[in-house]
Amino acid sequence: MAESLPALAFLGAGSMGGAILRGVIASGITIDGGITATNRTTAKAEAFADLEGVTSIALESQPSGSADAAAAARIILVGVKPAMVPDLLREIAPRLAPDAIVVSLAAGVTLQTFADNLGADARVIRSMPNTPATVRKGVTGLAAGASATADDLALVRRLFETVGAVVEVPESQIDALSTISGSGPAYVYLLIEEFTRAAVGMGFDEADARLMVEQTFIGATALLDASGEDPAELRRRVTSPKGTTERAVTVLQDARLDRTFADAAAAALARAKELAAGA
């Protein structure tokens, strides 16, 4: 990983932008030129005011803040709501440095939208991070626009590697990626919820049920990470022939868990396409 990154601007440091900003700082990486974050209100801006190396701007008191921040940065992360993106791009376009890299954090906003509002020569990369980036355990998908260079992509990859793993995909795969790593944490939480209910149903109180289930998931994934083994192999080691786990796993397999997950991902992808079409 690079020892430093160039100056960063977070335009709209909301939940995801703020998570990445905090993750970058937590990683300890040096930011040459510092970080600027903009938010609409003073109250939101104050949430970042105490972070070392961060200049936090409230647009209600500094209306030119977004363009000012973009002009001073090499990497500009656009984290405003999708409907606000075109206006923001038109505002910052005249102020961008020639080598500026604009990174989209906005779900559903295409690279074409960025090109239309910044110009075809603008270096744009579309990102799809997920919420575990908050604790530097994220997965981020990156899709590079036509004018972004390999070096641009490598630089942005290093930025997102400070908050987790990175997968590079063509833009046509970004929506599919969002159904796996973007929505995926919700699927895991749902499994934990249901498994906890099962434990309560067996007579454990809520606190003990939550402790057992949550720590089982946390421990199992930590072991997967630490061992480097295939999950099927780790499952085999827990599943003694003719034992209790084998019988439970058979019930899950008989319930067509494979088809359920495939159907869930397909449903999420269909909805992503509806949203892209404005439905």
Automatic annotation (TrEMBL):
Q: Under what name is this protein listed?
A: Pyrroline-5-carboxylate reductase
The subcellular localization recorded is:
Cytoplasm
The answer on whether this UniProt entry bears the keyword GTP-binding reads no
> Which Gene3D superfamilies does its entry note?
NAD(P)-binding Rossmann-like Domain (3.40.50.720), ProC C-terminal domain-like (1.10.3730.10)
Question: Domain named Pyrroline-5-carboxylate reductase catalytic N-terminal: which ranges?
Answer: 8-108
The EC number(s) attached to this protein equal 1.5.1.2
Quick one: which pathway?
Answer: Amino-acid biosynthesis; L-proline biosynthesis; L-proline from L-glutamate 5-semialdehyde: step 1/1
> Is Transmembrane helix found in the keyword set?
no
> If you read the UniProt record, what top EC class would you report for this enzyme, in one word?
oxidoreductase
User: Which GO-annotated molecular functions does the record name?
Assistant: pyrroline-5-carboxylate reductase activity
Tell me the function of this protein.
Catalyzes the reduction of 1-pyrroline-5-carboxylate (PCA) to L-proline.
Quote the PROSITE patterns the UniProt record gives. Answer: P5CR
Annotated GO CC locations:
cytoplasm
**What does the UniProt keyword field contain?**
Amino-acid biosynthesis, Cytoplasm, NADP, Oxidoreductase, Proline biosynthesis
The record lists the membrane-crossing segments as none
Where the record annotates domain Pyrroline-5-carboxylate reductase dimerisation, the positions are 171-275
Which Gene Ontology biological process is one annotated for this entry?
L-proline biosynthetic process
Record: residues binding NADP(+): L11, G12, A13, G14, S15, M16
Q: Which family does it belong to?
A: Belongs to the pyrroline-5-carboxylate reductase family.
